[in-house]
């Protein structure tokens, strides 16, 4: 295996979601390094429909938490008790303290006028998440239940859309990485459902 692949595989294997952070502040330079990688992602017609807001102001973080929790409270009222308990087991409730407690938030915003804006922006988010791991930092891909409430709170024009808000910092979350399906279960050869591993 060539060296670069080994490094990427190690990063991908090690990366896991973090919802609790220490108070140590990552430098803005590190965050910009991460976004420097994100801006190289491919996009439909190369429109680069991503925008990023880097937030370290506690008042803005509180505003984002308040707006997000408004949407979460609404959402949690619509789901069954079973689903609510399943979310709780994963560490999710309507409360989002990580939005205030993480030292930095990065809001990732898409330009809905661009072709294929969602897959394009989510590719850049994939780049960001792996780069955050490479920078020795951690994050959670928080997708607000009602992103429009957050968009309005941040006074973002309505043809832009909030895709995710990434709380970023140093992990204080001891939980282990969740297991993944093996390639043997996932990869077919030449036709649907013909497992490559079985040949
Ligand atoms: C598209 C997407 C949306 C997600 N939305 C949320 C979210 O709103 N809140 C949250 O706490 N985690 C969210 N996650 C994190 C997942 O729960 C997490 O990645 C998954 O359980 C696998 O765990 P791992 O990242 O530790 O490997 C999201 C992840 C993805 C990729």
What features would you describe in this structure?
This protein is α+β, with helices and mostly antiparallel strands and 199 residues long. It has a single domain, classed as NADH Oxidase (3-Layer(aba) Sandwich). It has 8 helices and 4 strands; from the N terminus they run ααβαααβαβαβα. It has helices at residues 3-14, 28-38, 58-78, 81-89, 98-101, 117-134, 147-153, 183-186; strands at 50-55, 104-111, 138-139, 160-169. Strands 1-2-4-3 form a 4-stranded antiparallel sheet, with helices on both faces. It is globular, with a radius of gyration of 18 Å. The two termini are 23 Å apart. The model has no long low-confidence stretch (mean pLDDT 95). Bound molecules: flavin mononucleotide (FMN). Flavin mononucleotide (FMN) is lined by residues 16-17, 19, 92, 140-143, 177-178. Flavin mononucleotide binds next to loops.
Provide the descriptors you would attach to this structure in a database record.
8 helices, binds flavin mononucleotide, 4-stranded antiparallel sheet, alpha+beta, NADH Oxidase, 4 strands
Strand content: 5-15%
**Rg of Cα set:** 18 Å
CATH topology: NADH Oxidase
Domains, number: 1
What's the level 1 CATH class? Alpha Beta
Query: How many DSSP E strands?
Result: 4
The CATH H-level homologous superfamily: NADH Oxidase
| Mean pLDDT level | 95
Summarize the structure.
The protein has helices spanning about 5-15, 30-40, 60-80, 80-90, 100, 115-135, 145-155, 185; strands at about 50-55, 105-110, 140, 160-170.
């Amino acid at each position: 295996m060539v060296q670069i692949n080994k490094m990427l595989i190690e990063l991908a294997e090690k990366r896991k979601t973090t919802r609790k952070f220490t108070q140590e502040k990552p430098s803005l330079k590190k965050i910009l390094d991460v976004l420097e990688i994100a801006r190289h992602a491919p996009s439909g017609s190369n429109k680069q429909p991503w925008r990023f807001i880097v937030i370290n102001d506690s008042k803005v973080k509180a505003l984002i938490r308040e707006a997000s929790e408004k949407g979460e409270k609404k959402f949690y009222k619509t789901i069954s008790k079973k689903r609510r308990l399943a979310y709780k087991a994963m560490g999710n409730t309507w409360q989002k303290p990580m939005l205030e407690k993480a030292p930095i938030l990065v809001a990732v915003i898409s330009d809905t006028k661009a072709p294929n804006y969602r897959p394009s922006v989510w590719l850049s988010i994939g780049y960001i998440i792996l780069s955050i791991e490479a920078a020795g930092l951690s994050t959670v891909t928080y997708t607000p239940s009602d992103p429009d409430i957050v968009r309005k709170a941040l006074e973002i024009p309505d043809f832009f859309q909030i895709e995710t808000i990434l709380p970023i910092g140093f992990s204080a979350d001891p939980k282990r990485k969740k297991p993944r399906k093996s390639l043997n279960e996932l990869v077919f050869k030449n036709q649907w459902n013909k497992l490559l591993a079985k040949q």
